[in-house]
Every structure is written in structure tokens, then in C-alpha cells.
Amino acid sequence: MCTYPPPPERQEEGEGEEEEEWHSLRPQFSSPPRQQQQQQQHSAVVMLSLIRLPRVFTINQVPKVFHEDSIISGYRHPRSSATDCILSLFQLTNETLNIWTHFLPTWYFLWKLVTVVLIQTAWQDFFTWPLVIFLVSCCIYPLASSCAHTFSSMSARARHICFFFDYGALSFYSLGSAISYSAYVFPDKWVNSFFHQWYIPIAVLNTVICTAVACYSRFPECQSPKFSKYLRVVAFAYPYLFVNIPLFYRVFLCVGESCTDNDTNILHYNHIALAFLTGFLFATHLPERLAPGSFDYIGHSHQLFHVCGILGTHFQMKAIEQDMLTRRPWLLERSIPVTFSNSVGAALFCIVVNLTIIILYSLPLLSAPVCQENTHDKGLKKASAKVYCRIRPLGAEDEECCVEMISSSTIQLHAPDGLKANRNGEYKETQYSFKKVFGIQTTQMELFEDVARPLVEDLVHCKNGLLFTYGVTGSGKTFTMTGSPGEGGLLPRSLDMLFNSIGPFQAKRFVFKPDDKNGMEIQNQVDALLERQKRDSQQSVPKTPSSRQKADPEFADMISSEEACKSENVDEDCCYSVFVSYIEVYNNYIYDLLEDAPIDPIRPKPPQSKILREDQNHNMYVAGCTEVEVKSTEEAFEVFWKGQKKRRIANTQLNRESSRSHSVFTVKLAQAPLDADGDHILQDKNQVNVSQLCLVDLAGSERTSRTRAEGSRLREAGNINQSLMTLRTCMEVLRENQMCGTNKMVPYRDSKVTHLFKNYFDGEGKVRMIVCVNPKADDYDETMLVMRFAEMTQEVEVARPVDRPICGLAAGRRHRNQAFRDDLSRRLEERGGPSNAADDPALLNQLIESLPALPPCELVDPADDQTLPRLIEVLQRRHRIRQLMTEQYNKTANTLASMLQQFDGQLNAKETFLHDQRNRLSEKDKVIGNQRLEIERLEKKSKTLEYKIDILQKTTDMYEHDKRSLQQALETREQKLQRELSERRRMEQRMHGMVSDTKLKWEKECERRVNAKQLEMQNKLWVKDEKLKQLKAIVTESSGGGGPTERPEKPDRPSRERDRNLAQKRSASPSPLPDLSQTPSHQNRANVRAAQDAYPTPTTSSSSSSSAYPSVASCISNWEQRLPLDSSSQSRHPWTPQYRSRTPAACHGSSSVGRRRGQRWATDTEATATTLVYGLDLEAGSRTAPPVRPMHRRSQSAGGEKWVDHKPTSNLDLDTVMQPIIPNAIKVSTPNEKALSKCDKYVLRHQELASDGEIETKLIKGNVFKTRGGGQAVQFTDIETLKQECPTAPRMPILS
């Protein structure tokens, strides 16, 4: 509890009066009765405050390593103590139910283990050892999980190590399940199988591997969270799936008598269903992924994951116990016996190995962080922004306190009486830690020593700094920054320390001059003097406040002489100059408080706002801001007070003098080194170093519901809160980028305050923040927000500025120059020569002898007027000589002094040159060393790449060899396939030939029998006719009276002689009918028989053979043996596909026109015009000469005639070596008149099956000539036969 004394009298709160409160309340600090009454009224609260529950955070307030998917709030402090972790068991967080859902089942499984061990005396029965091991694993894994969830918030390293143990326990649980399954659950078919014998060794190996993989998955969690999650899922799922292979086979796949089918399978079904539900919840993060933030405390997937896992383990335990009891006799007789090695020994081995793995993975965490930030400035050292807290006293006696200082670095906030944090009425206390907490008894000097003094020392050493106060309105920010008489704040004490440190080494005015671009220029002494005279002469320009003027009595005693301090180790070889500027940020506009605007009483002009710009070093500055050069603390504070009077302050309900803008007082220190002589400043702009210290008094955040602001006050409050909110957002993004390695854009430009101080947070200086707290209960809500922002700001890291050397000149130049001046002035004051002339008698005698001799100066007569004038003349000559000697000595001394100075300058220049050369040499050495390291690294990388290239080359060669082998195998198989296909086609053709031959044979036999029967019937009819004629003749003879009559001519009897002749002319074996499917243009059998029926059969010898389907050769022979036809009775059939037939029909024609070989001739009684043979138009003619006998000769296609090579598309390529080659040939697949008109020779390639099944090719040749009708006709002249035989094929019998 806070015990603050009341003030002497009740006053309104305000930053103007809080100075008096701080000053007057400190000596009267005591414990009033009011506080004792509060302790008595809330004794229960005091008792509860002894057990301080830790504070919970949101996802934006903890590092990324602690984040859970879709969990927004309920996080514990990332650096909780062990006590806080244990206390969080009794506080509702997002881990509370995770802990209890595994901690309570641990006692249940422990009770089962004790029951089995003690009551059932398991250690005496080796058959129950697997059950004991399984129960031990069931006790270990929930206990390890609850402990891991309990202590995982101590730190990032502790979190990883805790979950290492959790993963090891889960792997051991999978091994316990495997041991129990091997002993009790294996199906009957698999008992004593090869898989059963190697089941436990493989399970042991899986346990070790999965523990290592699960522990490794914690390391890439920050860089690759998806990959880490994938590894973890595999490490959990793989051992479960392997262990349950016999169970899956038993309950899902096994069918038959040897399957273990009993009531236990129902328990196994329940266990499997819950196990898959557990994995589904772990992988999908349902239901919190559907509604992030709604299941943070109760009902998220990890809690359901724990519940389903425990229920599944319960059903698994019941099933194992039931299998052990029901299958015990059968398993003891047939299964693998339970031994120490396959039960207890395997479990102990896995425990030792898992602990070793956990230790090996935990050792790197003790030396390096797990999540390393991927920033571009890894080489820079970083330090977190330091945040301090200051508590002001209460303003009234009866006010309630809500802030308690627990230690020098921790405060605690508790809700006031009228505000309940929870529905059950309990107080919700929260604690916040800072770099240091300053109580109400802290003096301004103590605050300055801890907070501001390091920043001033850094300012002198060319380093920037930022110090700002933050808090609610009326919390003491202005008092902390400015102070009061006798209690000077941070600003006057910083100025006093600065001028005490650099006072003797300040440069004259206007030697340093701002260049209006956030830089400094150096002027020589003459230009600086002219600038001073010019400023003094211009009355319109306000003069710079002089340090000789009397200080304002209100601030004269702010800092006592006893409290004055200075910085040590100030560089005396530099000259310094201090410039101050004062601006305010009002409604997000920047105004210059030191600007002297012309006063117009008639039409006053509002002040003009300034803009922010970026200099050449990418630093932000206010363009056109007034920078005043000051030479003392009083002068600087007078400038500050001048601007303070222009600052916007207004009266509100909470503060009588409330700041309505953010003020920024900038102290800029310019320093440049002296030259080698130590007399003047180096006229080199590059040697000027400018550092600055920004002292910021932020306006207090306020709620309009309490201030009741309206109009412009409401707008001011909105802009103030918006700028503070932007500052908070920038801090959050900075912290997230640094902790999580992200690269989000920081919204500096959303506010002028954050945009102006952007460089400080990017590493241009140190950052300090003082959080001012008003402990009264009315500001509890605002104070809570301020505390959260302050605690978050502490986690932001700012790069430490690098020391900037001023120059390479030798040190002590100013001191040596001053000593030389003092000695020279002392020597010049001495008259008569060097200071040691009186000490040297010889030199003194020599000087006396060089002077003119003195005349006798004895006076014997008072009236002597010659001695004294002579003496006076001699003395005057001696005096002139002495003056000449003195002047000569002075000239010599000056020459010697100049020579000494020149030698000293040369010596210093050489020392500087040597120093520069040494520096360059050291830099070159460093560069060489870095290059050597880089060369070594590149050589190693080159060797590694060469090794990888060799491996890749070998792999490529292997792949190429495999590719060639596969291609050869593929080509071999393709060739084999082609040969098989060709053989198959040949076999099909052979079979078709055999079928067609057999078919033709039987058709011929049937026709022969029909013809024989027909001839027999004709003979019988002829006999009957003869008998009838004889009877008629007898009757006629008897009736006519017996006169002699003429005997009728005896008709000829049909004879078989012609059939015999025709049979002799035919071939011994019937020619096979060509395959109708392979003939390009063919007639069906009906057309052939129709052509045969069109002519009389018994009149010629061809009638008996017309139904025998003769071959082409037999047809041509018959044509040649016939008589020529009369051309007048012939008519040519159209060249159409339907007349194409292999067997020409018998036809009758008239007299022949000419002799054509190969043409068919018919008798006079035949009335056919022209016959088509294989689709060729044969013009008829009469034959006048004997038929030409066909001669078998070779092809005459080698001549110069032009041929029509008719090759039907259905012909097969036989791939034989000997192929008919016809030069000057037009190859066609279908004959046409156009091709025939261009050639005089014709050849037809006809294929048919021989009697042995082989394909026989016939080349039917003929001459092409024009017909009378203008068409083209072919006269066949020759036939060549090409036949292919297989030497290994069996000979087919010739059919007759």
C-alpha cells in the first residue's frame, strides 16, 4: 500500500503547482491515519496481495517464440519466475487448462500403476512386465507435458528445454505401447512371425529418431514455422502409425479363423478413433482458427488435444489389460516369451538415450539464442531503450492510492475500491518492471545522476541522446524536466554540467556558424569578428543574450554550487560551441518558439509552421529553425525561458496549466580540433563534429470524458492522443521487427514527433524515457495504459552509436602552446638578455668589455665642465650599443623561437604522418587479414563446390548409363515386339490361305458332283427321248403303211470326253481363290455366278469348268485357245470397281480386229462384248491368227518404255532382298485413264496365298493402247510369279 502525506492545504492539480507539492511534501512524509483505515477496511485484499498473481499479456506483447496459432490473449510474462509459473496454475491463462488436463490424469495413471505393482504383485510375474512399462509411460508423458506447459514462460531457452522433455516422454510412451502390443495385442496370424521378432528393436530405433527430430524442430521455429510444424507432426505420427500396424491389421484387415476377434476390439476402436481425432485437432488448430480470440482461455485445440489424448490412453489401457487376461494361456504357449531385454531393458535403454539427446540439444541454448534476428546491422552492438519510472506524491490527504513501489525496479498497480477487475469482485493486481523506479523521496540530483548525466557525457564525446518524459496529464512531467527554484530539473542541470565541462575550451562567438542544413561551418577569426560587429551594429536583429547580464532571480538558485558537476576526460585540444533551439509540436504542426516575428498590432500574423527535412546524413531536422549560440548556463536557460513563455498552455478540468503541445529543447554541441600549433581551429569542415541532446516534454494523455474539453481544447486533446498512439505503434512495430526478424515498415511519418526522432530509434543515439506516474485512483485506467507502453518500450533495442575520432593530431597541443606562450612572455619581460646571463660571469665580462671604455670620472674641481659631458657621452654610446645588442638578441630570440615552432610543427606533422601511416598500415593489415579469411572461406567453398560437382557428375554419369541401358532395353523389346507382330501376321495369312484352299476344294467338289448329276439326268432324259422317238417312229410307220421314210438324225449324246479334256488342261492342284479382303477391287461370288449363268453351258468345253473358279493363268490359256471374237459384237464394259474380278466370265464375241496376246476368245454363240480382268478395260477384237502361246520370261521393264506400276494399297511389304524395280514408272494405287494415257506398258502387282500358306506375288504385264472410243485398253502379255518361302516352315500338302 502507498502511504503519502497530505499537503499543507488542498490545492487544484496542475503542473504549475506540482513543483510546490514536490518541494513541500518531501520533509513531511509520514503514515496518516487515513491509510491505516484503508488497510483495516481491506484486510482481505491485503492478505490476497501477499500472493500476487502474475499479469497476462496479449500476443503483441510477447516475443514470437511464445506465440500460439490463433490465440490472441492470455499469455504469461515471457520472463516469469518459477514462483510466477506455479501461481499461474491458479490464474486463468491460455495455459491453465493445458496444465490441469494432463496433471490430474497423471494421478489416475499413477494409481493404476500402484494397483498393478502392489496389489497384483507384477514384479513376480514376468508376463505383466510389459503392462507395468506401459503404465509407467502413461504416468511420465502427462506429467512431463504439464511441467513443460507450467515452466515454459520462464524464458525462450526454458521453453525449448521444457518441450524437449515433453517430446522425449511422448516417444517413450510410444515405446511402452509397442512393448505391450508385442506381448498382448499381436494378432494370432502374426505371432512368432519375422515382423513380430523385429517389432520391438524397430520401435526402439523409432523412439530415438523421433525424439531427435522433435527436439530439432524447435530450432527453425522462428525462421520456418511451417517446416518446424511439419517435422513435429511427422515425429508424433510416424511412431504411432508403426506401433499400431498389428492393431490395424487385427481390427480392420484380418479375416479368418486365425484372427483375434473378441470383445476387446471395441475398446481398440474407441482408442483408434480418439487417436485420429487428437491428430486432427493438433494439425488443424480448430476451433480457434475459425474464430481467433474466442477460445483463448477455454476450448482451444490444445486443450481438446489433451482431453482426447488422455481418453484414448484410457481406452488403450483397458484394451491391453483385457487382452492380457483373456489371451494369457494362448500367448504363454505360442508367443515370444517376455524377457528382460525385450521389455525392461529396452525401456531403460530408450530413457538413457532420450536424456542424452535432450542434453545435447539443450547445450547450444545455453550459449546462443534460438531465434537470431536477421537484421542488416549485425555488426552493431545494440542496447535496449532504458525506461525509468518516477512516482509523484498524492495531492490531497483523502485521495486513494493505486500505485505501490515494491522494489527499486518494480511497481504494482491495484484497482481502486470502485473498480473491480473481475466479476467475482476480486482485485486484479499487476506488476511492472523498469530500469529503476524513483519514489517520492528521490531528489532531482539523484534523478539527474542516474538518467541525464550519461547522456551529457555522451554529448561531450560526440554522441547523440534523446530524453523524454511520458505520462498522463498532471503526473509531474514538467517538474521533472524543468524543476523549480532550488530544485532544478533535468534541463538546467544538463546545461550546467555541459558548460562546467567545456567552459575553458569554448570558441569565440560566430567561429561556428550553422549552415541551415543541419550542419556547421567554421569561420576564421577575422570573419567571426566582422560577424560580431555586424550583429552589434544592426539594431533590428535581436542580440544574443550575454552571459554578463544578471540572471533571472526566479532561476538564479535552481542549482546550488555544491551540486555542480562536470564531465571528465574532455578533449582539451578541441574548441566547443553550444547552440540551442526550442520548438513545439502543436496539432501535428511544428512551430519555432525562438523565432522573433515582427509585431503588427493592427493585423497580427499567426506563427508560421516549420517543415521537416532530411540532411545529407539522412538525419531529420526542422528547416528554418532558430539556433542560438550560448556561452553559459544562465544564458541558455534564459533562451529556454524566452521560448517557454510562447508555449501553448491551457486550463482544463484536470490541470490548471496543462501543456497543449509537445516541446523539444535541443542542445547542439559543435566541436573542432586545434591545429598542430594549438593556436587556431582547423579550417576544415570535415573535422567538425556535431552532437545533440534532445530534451522532450510530451503532453500528457487525457480522456475527454474527464477533461470535458470542447472546441479547440477537444481538437488539441485528439491530436495529443493521436501522436502518442503513433509513438506506441512505432514502438510495437520496432519490437516485432527486432524480436521476430520481420521487416515491417515503421509508421514514423504518421506523426511529426515520431518522424523527428526517427534517427534515434534507427541507431543515431541513446534513448531514455522517464514515465511519470500519478498514484491517485482517478488516473488508474490511464496509468495502466502508460505502464503497458513503458514496458513494451523497454524491449525495443537501439543500436549503440560508434565512437567518432576527431583527428589524428598529437594530443596536448593546447597545453604545449600555452606553456610556450608563458615562457616567451616571461623571457620578453626580462631586459638585458637571456634569463641566465647573470649566472654566467664569463659572458657578463665579455659583454662589458665589448662596450666603450669609461673615461676617468674623478672630479677635482667643482668648476670642471668637461668630465661630466665626456662621461655622459660615453654612457650614451654604451646605452646605444646596449640597445642595439638588445634588439639583436631579441631578433635572434624571435628567430630561434620561430625556428623552434617550425621544428615543433614539423615534428608534430611527422608524428601525425607516422600516426596516419600506422593507422593505414593497421587498416591494411585488417583488410589483408579479412581478405585472407575471405580467401580461405572461398577456397573451402570452392572445394566444397568441386566435391559437390564431382558428386553431381558421377550421379549424372550413372543416370546417363542407366538411361542408355534403358534405351537399349527398350529398343530390344521394340524389335522383339515387331518380330512377334510380323510373325503373327504371317501366321494369320498362312491360316487364311489354308482355310481358303480348303474352302475352294470343297466348292469345286460340290460343283463337280452337281455337274455329274446334271449330266446323268440329261443322259437319262436323252434315253427317254430316244425311246419316245422310236416309239413314235414305230407308230408312224405302222400308221403310214410302211413306206420308206427318212430316218431322223440321231442326236449326239452328251459325252464326258470334254470334261476329261478340260480336267487334263487344268492344273494338278486347284489354284486358290484370292483373298477378297486383300484384292483392291473384287466381285462377290454372286456376280461371278451371275456372269456364268448368262451364257449356255453345254455347247463348249468351257461350260463345265466355268464354275470351278480358274486362276488367271488358266483363264489366259483358255483365251488363247478360243477362236477370235467378232469385234462388231463386242462392247466394252465401263471401268467401274464392281466389274473387277479375279475370274473372268465366259463370253461370246464376233470376228477379231487384230491379234492380241492374252485376250480371251469366245464362240460365235456367245454374246458378250468385253471382259474385265482385275478391273482392266479389255477392248474386244477378232483373232485372225493362231493364239500366241504364253512364254515364261523375265520382266522387260528394264527397257526404255514408260510403265504404269499398279500396286494396290492392301498389298503387304514383304521386306525381301529381291524387289521388283521398274524405272520410268508411274506408281498408282488405283488405275486411271490419265496415267494410262502417258504410258505404253502396264503391270499389276497381285498378291495371293499359295497352297503352303505363303504370300505369292504375281506381276501381270500388258500393253496399253487406245480404243476406238478414245479410251485406254490393256492387252496382257506376260505373268511373273514371286514367291517367298520359309526354310524352317513345314511343307503343306498340295490339294488336288
Automatic annotation (TrEMBL):
Sites where the protein binds ATP: 471-478
A GO CC annotation given for this chain: spindle
Biased composition (Acidic residues): 12-21
Binding of Zn(2+), residues: 149, 302, 306
Biased composition (Polar residues): 538-548, 1064-1086, 1125-1141
Primary subcellular site in the record, as a coarse category: cytoplasm
GO molecular function, one term: metal ion binding
GO BP term, pick one: cell division
Compartments, record wording: Cytoplasm, Cytoskeleton, Spindle; Membrane; Midbody, Midbody ring; Nucleus
Biased composition (Basic and acidic residues): 1046-1062
Topology term for the membrane: Multi-pass membrane protein
Residue ranges annotated for the Kinesin motor domain, each copy included: 384-796
Transmembrane domains' residue ranges: 106-123, 129-151, 163-186, 198-219, 231-249, 269-286, 344-363
Keywords: ATP-binding, Cell cycle, Cell division, Coiled coil, Cytoplasm, Cytoskeleton, Isopeptide bond, Membrane, Metal-binding, Microtubule, Mitosis, Motor protein, Nucleotide-binding, Nucleus, Phosphoprotein, Transmembrane, Transmembrane helix, Ubl conjugation, Zinc
Similarity-based family: Belongs to the TRAFAC class myosin-kinesin ATPase superfamily. Kinesin family. Belongs to the ADIPOR family.
Summary of subunit composition and partner proteins: Heterotetramer of two molecules each of RACGAP1 and KIF23. Found in the centralspindlin complex. Interacts with RACGAP1; the interaction is direct. Interacts with ECT2 and PRC1. Interacts with ANXA11 during cytokinesis. Interacts with BIRC6/bruce and USP8/UBPY. Interacts with ARF6, forming heterodimers and heterotetramers.
Free-text function comment from the UniProt entry: Component of the centralspindlin complex that serves as a microtubule-dependent and Rho-mediated signaling required for the myosin contractile ring formation during the cell cycle cytokinesis. Essential for cytokinesis in Rho-mediated signaling. Required for the localization of ECT2 to the central spindle. Plus-end-directed motor enzyme that moves antiparallel microtubules in vitro.
Protein name listed in UniProt: Kinesin-like protein KIF23
